[in-house]
Give the backbone structure.
Amino acid sequence: MSDLPEPDRILDLPHPRHTKHLFGQEPAEAEFLSAYNSDRLHHAWLITGPRGIGKATLAWRITRFLMTVVEDDGGMFGAPEAPKSLDAPQDAPALARLEALSEPRLFLLRRPFNAKTEKLRAEITVDEVRRLKSFFELSASDGGRRVLIVDCMDEMNTNAANALLKLLEEPPKDVVMLLICHQPAGLLPTIRSRCRILRCAPLGTDDMAFALTGAHPDKLENPAALGEMSSGSVGQALELDTAGGLAIYETLLSMFSKGPLDRSIAIKFAEAASARGAEEKQALLFRLIDLFLARLARTGVAGPAPEAVNGEAGLMSRLCPNVTAARDWAKLAAELGARGKHGRAVNLDPAALILDMLIKIDNTAARIAR
């Protein structure tokens, strides 16, 4: 398995199951521990928050805890002391099995690898959920407490979500389900209603610095700018650094910094981002366009944010001088976001899609300027 790509792993960084330290999510940890110690451990936890802030790392931290904690078995020595943290004993045999994905009491539900195409599937399918049947049929003596991690709910298709809902409605005994979700509003209301919400928050400045240093000990290109652009998401910051996101963002801004869009430059930019084998770069560019529009809209409401690249504040103030303009940019962000998602789903020419987005941004800027 070590040679296969993992859908729940960011680039070539360590997988969350190998990440020992979690920064900035102390309130979520405390909430889960309180539920455990008060014997109110819900069978399903929906771990929510923006992408890349440590939700998966928290899920694996909870899993290690549940697999190693000493519970009251009614023995002659009385109940053990209530745990004060989610730390797991480092000599516990289960830890090595968890890291190797060989622990029989754990089921990791994620997008599968297609051996025929040698690529990851685009969605979590109902066939993957059906594999849970044999896992849940383990008796308590065979498996003890069992844990299901779904990473992530956002990637489930409709049939898979409905199949999981049936398990949530009739949860097996001694099973804890940890459901990672970036956008819970997109889930079936019946799924949300059967879960206890465990909210994770974007990291603050200090926690971002510690997390970035721990995840990427080598010198980052510009930690302050990465932190500003990623809105407290370590995962997004590291993706931006690895993929040259700052340089792409700077190029994007430069196209709108000197008046009307130069179509020849825009065409070259769109074609470069759409070359064969540049799928990851395309996805990054769509996110950067969305980020650009979001920062524009915020400028009209709250003023310019700290600069991610030189000259950004002046450009943002010129393009979005007031609340009325902010509404226009927010509307365009929603329109382009939906168009980009649809275009990728139906395999539209990415160069044409990107160029169309740039032209619409230019048209909106011209209208606001008038």
In short: The domain at 16-199 is CATH 3.40.50.300 (Rossmann fold). The longest strand covers residues 175-181. The mean pLDDT is 89. The chain has 17 helices and seven strands.
